[in-house]
Fold this sequence. Notes:
By secondary structure, the protein is of the alpha/beta class. It is built from nine helices and nine strands.
Amino acid sequence: MTQSPSPHCGLVAVVGAPNAGKSTLVNALVGQKVAIVSPKAQTTRVRLMGIAIEGETQLLLVDTPGIFDPKRRFDRAMVTAAWEGAEGADAIAFVVDAKSGLPEKVTVIAERLASRKEPKLLILNKVDLADKPRLLTHAERLNALLPFDETFFVSATTGDGIAELKTALTRRMPQGPWHFPADQVSDASERMLAAEVTREQIFLQLHAELPYASAVETEQYIERPDGSVELHQQILVERDTQRAIVLGKGGSRIKEIGARARAELSRVMGVPVHLYLHVKVKPGWDDDRTLNNDMGLDWVD
């Protein structure tokens, strides 16, 4: 696909409470995986941009971290990243988990969005799992707090309503040149993408045992002469007991994490991937300025 002689391009900030399905929605709009997904809340830690094309329009989708009540410096950095991701957007997509009702964390975000000047779209997600009679009630309550420009009922998992949402977003984008080539689907660096894919496997395989006490750093990214990629990553944890969880009995767990991450990276990158993982105990890693910056988060005092 080539750029139209009359192109449009704009920024869509995708915001919402943790576990609303923002990453799944971005992936659905792009048409392939660009953001990691897990059943655990707060999976997204950095602003990752998905790039979608609809006709002559390029949509720059900022998948922000879920907005929640931050306790640690690292958490505050995540929330700051979420709100900054909405600055100057051509549209704000407020994603709400329709099956979970309207807890206070959702209404607080809606109230805060009320002061924003950007066009705002309400997206009630997971409608395939929600209580259907309550959907209109949810929409009415949120629109009473903040009159949204448009309201959509979608399922990012099944694809219901995604085409209509994409068309509506496209209509709101201003005329202007595309910012990225037509075949590019994300602005994330290969290093960051590789770290995110491995971290996704930690979320998926360890469930409640570990996830928020870990981070992944891509230390080396080497393109081999045969076209394959060699990756060396370290998984950071805070305590020796957490290291034991990641390693598993006889190293079985880290082998499984590596095998699944390697397969996913090979699929995403389109080349064979050689992945080497090791686990490092680093107390207070989430209070490390350099690591925050490497993950794309600004240092927050």
